[in-house]
Structure prediction request, 78 residues.
Amino acid sequence: MALKIEIPNCPECGSPASGTIERLVGCAEFERPQNGVLEYSGWTEIFWEEQRTNRDSESRTELICENRHSWFSKMEEV
Prediction:
């Protein structure tokens, strides 16, 4: 799928967009040691069906560059 991005380069450093910022839902799982005290296991199950692209109030997509700068831009499939 080809994409048309209104602002394809980072306004801060000029690098091209590497991708979009996504929001994920997950479950950070617990371990249940013998003493009954809960601890995080270090594993998170990601619910991929809940993944959403981050957008602002004008429905612009949040993009990110290789330097981890982010900005919003209009983006559409062509």
